[in-house]
Design a protein that fits this description.
single chain; alpha+beta; 5-stranded antiparallel sheet; 3-stranded mixed sheet; flat
């Protein structure tokens, strides 16, 4: 817990703080203080034990010591150490060792030594000027004894000041941190550039003693690679909390307060998030605890979609679903667990398994689902306008931007060398390091995909080729060993090339698919064939056969296949009589049509927003009557039959059943709630600008 330089030591590196053998996000301890200050009277309990502490400090400053007060001061510090573990980071430190140190320091022997030191020092101070001028010291002066006692007094004073200042440090830091949180919304953006001026205004210019030492810290456990880190030793709790706050602020970490439960939480993004992700509402709902976010929805105070921490993950999953649908695949979309997280679209073909409810979403289009329940005309009345070229062009640009920023992270991760991302991932098996690496290398992935698209005339396959390259990176990670001394960016090249070629070999529409062994042979033969000006006569075939050491008949078959593949047409395009591209799809799968996909996505987004605008009771009533899960929108539920999970359809409930299950006074109450919710959804959809523009 302590050393000769101070009482609190921490190591800071790349937005992380290492203390007590554990690692935390910078800013964690500032947030903890905000939550702990009033909890169990932590500050008050510590403040009580300071009376003899003050006395001993004054006595040492005056040059004398009362033995009883000295021993009592040690007892007070031991009493503080019983409460201090409630406060981080002290809970992670070796409190037992600190108690032992305090016990050994505040003893009768040390008190007697300090008293003897003060007596001897007074005798030395009373020397006459003649003796002083000659450098003659009295026999009471012993250099070793004086040095030992001076060190002892300095150590005692340092410890007394540290523990004496903790209550005031807590109060001061808490007041300033709370003021900063209360003024957060004054900032235009929640990044360092906009939050730092506010922080400096609240905390002012603060100067405090701080010992900083630059040390070599292993990148990971048992790693031989060392990096530079800063080890700081603090002489007060306030200096530690303030340093933790500003270190976190530098990396985009800042505290916020949940508007429901009142707890503070650490933000690590620039969202204007209003509710915490781990707290529970102060009131029970139907006898059950619910999350702060769910409680806010019930109260009609739902968080804006763009500020919801689940939105990023939701959009990422939906983007993957849309990518699979655009290829016409019979995909199996996987939703992540968590309330309202990763809802699969109603029109998702093949269904998506939701890990929260273990259900499978039926492949029903929105219109079909509504028609089955006889509510189509009441909910949606639309007149589809013809797709314009301008609209198609806008969508193509948006899709292209999305594909090029597929692995983009916001906010951006810490900027490190690519090799360091990989070594951190291999050491800690943390997926975030791989995501950081893909974010950093995305320009390279885009260039590889673009080159392949141009080389093989596969413009519509940009996203798939890019993901094939990522598969190559993952394959390389399985074989890579940092100890060989080869950078990963070089090691991965062959794996990326192989996976891209394998995708092209199997995915080119109109192409005769070959095996992984025969495909390189065909490429080599075709390269020689083109080098000879596509000449099969005058002994061209035998020459090629001799060069590749194959018989002429086999070579001729390879050339025929290669020529067929080079004359292919892209599966996603069709050409009119003039040779111009048309917007029609040669596939019979409607999911490949850009116009239909776009219409569906607009409709899904409008439906999600409309449904989320309902109260908790309205959502439950609509879900039960239409027969789907109100959390993930699945139309199936998991049932355990003979030890195995089977998926059964969620049966729609009549209004009387819904009223009875919710203990409502009238059987008509649920019916009124349902139709009121339908009307609310209809009005909400009509106010959606994108929906009005597309559907009128």
């Amino acid at each position: 817990m302590s050393d000769s330089l101070g009482l609190l030591t921490a190591i800071y590196r790349d937005g992380r703080v290492y203390i007590g053998g554990k690692s935390y996000a910078a800013g964690t301890f500032a947030v903890h203080l905000l939550n702990q200050y009033y909890k169990k009277d932590t500050a008050a309990r510590i403040a009580v034990f300071r009376q003899h502490n003050w006395n001993v400090q004054e006595q040492l400053a005056a040059g004398y010591l009362n033995e009883t007060d000295f021993l009592k001061a040690g007892e007070e510090i031991l009493a503080i150490l019983k409460t201090l573990p409630k406060l981080k980071p002290f809970s992670s430190l070796d409190i037992a060792a600190e108690k032992q140190r305090i016990t050994e320091l505040f003893t009768q022997e040390n008190a007697a030594a300090i008293q003897d030191y003060f007596c001897r020092r007074s005798t030395v101070a009373q020397q006459d000027q003649g003796a002083i001028s000659l450098g003659i010291l009295p026999p009471e002066y012993e250099k070793t004894f004086f040095g030992k006692c001076e060190t002892l007094c300095a150590t005692v004073l340092q410890i007394l000041r540290f523990y004496d200042s903790i209550p005031e440090d807590m109060r001061r830091a808490f007041t300033q941190l709370r003021q900063f949180v209360s003024r957060l919304d004054e900032a235009e953006h929640f990044d360092e550039q906009h939050l730092l001026p506010l922080a400096t205004e609240v905390f002012g210019k603060v100067a405090f003693p701080l010992n900083t030492e630059y040390i070599a810290l292993p990148k990971r456990r048992n790693s031989r690679i060392l990096v530079t880190a800063r080890r700081m030793t603090f002489e007060s709790y306030y200096s530690f909390v303030l340093t933790d706050f500003f270190e976190g602020l530098h990396y985009g970490h800042y505290p916020r307060r949940c508007e429901i439960c009142g707890q503070y939480f650490l933000m690590q993004s620039a969202r204007r998030q209003k509710y915490c992700s781990y707290g529970t509402a102060p009131e029970l709902y139907h006898g059950e605890k619910i999350s702060c976010r769910r409680y806010a929805i019930i109260q009609g105070k739902a968080e804006r979609a763009k500020d919801n921490p689940l939105k990023a993950a939701y959009e990422k999953r939906c983007a993957a679903i849309r990518s699979e649908k655009s290829r016409g695949d019979d995909f199996d979309g996987i939703c992540s667990s968590g309330a309202g997280y990763g809802k699969a679209p109603l029109g998702a073909g093949g269904g998506g398994r939701c890990l929260r409810c273990k259900g499978i979403l039926q492949g029903l289009g929105a219109s079909e689902a509504l028609r089955r329940h006889g509510q189509k005309d009441e909910i949606i009345k639309m007149e589809v306008r013809p797709v314009t070229e301008e609209l198609n062009e806008t969508r193509r640009k948006q899709q292209a931007l999305l594909e090029r920023r597929m692995y983009h992270l916001d906010p951006a991760p810490p900027k490190l060398p690519p090799q360091e991302y990989i070594e951190l991932y291999l050491a800690e098996k943390e997926g975030k390091y791989l995501l950081w690496y893909l974010h950093d290398r995305e320009p390279m992935l885009n260039k590889l995909a673009q080159d392949a698209c141009q080389r093989y005339s596969m413009a519509e396959h940009f996203a798939d080729i890019k993901q094939a390259a990522v598969c190559g990176i993952l394959a390389a990670l399985q074989k890579y060993d940092p100890s060989i001394g080869v950078p990963f960016v070089s090691f991965q090249k062959q794996y990326i090339s192989d996976t891209i070629e394998d995708y092209i070999r199997t995915a080119q529409s109109g192409m005769v698919t070959m095996t992984a062994d025969t495909y390189p042979v065909m490429k080599r033969i075709m390269a020689i064939y083109h080098r000879n000006n596509d000449d099969c006569g005058n002994g061209g075939i035998p020459k090629i056969a001799d060069e590749v050491e194959m018989d002429a008949k086999t070579v001729q078959r390879y050339i025929a296949i290669g020529a067929l593949n080079e004359r292919r047409a892209d599966f996603c395009l069709q050409y009119d009589e003039d040779g111009d591209e048309t917007g029609e799809d040669v596939s019979i799968d409607a999911a490949s049509r850009p116009d239909k996909l776009y219409f569906r996505e607009v409709l899904y987004a409008a439906l999600y927003e409309a449904y989320d605008s309902l109260t908790y009771r309205e959502q439950r009533t609509v879900a039960k009557h239409l027969g789907f899960c109100d959390t993930c929108w699945s139309t199936k539920k998991a049932v355990l039959i003979n030890g195995e999970i089977e998926y059964r359809p969620i049966k729609p409930m009549i209004f009387e059943e819904i009223s009875h299950s919710a203990s409502r006074k009238s059987d008509k109450a649920s019916e009124r709630t349902f139709y009121a919710a339908m009307e609310k959804m209809r009005k909400h959809i009509e106010t959606d600008a994108d929906y009005r523009y597309i559907f009128g």
